[in-house]
Amino acid sequence: MSTRPSPPVSSRRLPKQARSNDLVAAILEAALQVLAKEGARRFTTTRVAERAGVSIGSVYQYFPNKAAILFR
Fold first, then answer.
1. pLDDT at position 8, please?
2. 65 contacts: CB under 8 Å, gap ≥ 6
3. pLDDT per position as a tens digit, 20-63
4. pTM exceeds 0.70
5. Each residue of 4-23: pLDDT tens digit?
6. Angle formed by the axes of helices 18-38 and 45-52, to 10°?
7. Long-range contacts of 27-30 (CB under 8 A, 24+ apart)
8. Phi and psi (nearest 5°) for 20?
9. Helix runs in the chain, H state only
């Protein structure tokens, strides 16, 4: 049986401008709120995006998956 490769936990790209830093900070703050309110089992990138008030594409621009958000 083959083993499943683990998902990457690094960021896709690093923010360079102040507004990008603010966006990443908002995503991380929303992630903390979702994790505290709903727990790890219900933690998704979609919930984080909704809580941060950004599109899911904005989340995926900086984080490839939920593991990367949690790792950060």
1. 58
2. 7, 8, 45
3. 999 999 999 999 999 999 999 999 999 999 999 999 999 999 99
4. yes
5. 666 655 667 777 889 999 99
6. 120
7. 27/52, 27/54, 27/58, 27/59, 27/62, 27/63, 27/69, 28/69, 28/72
8. -70, -40
9. 18-38, 45-52, 56-62, 66-71
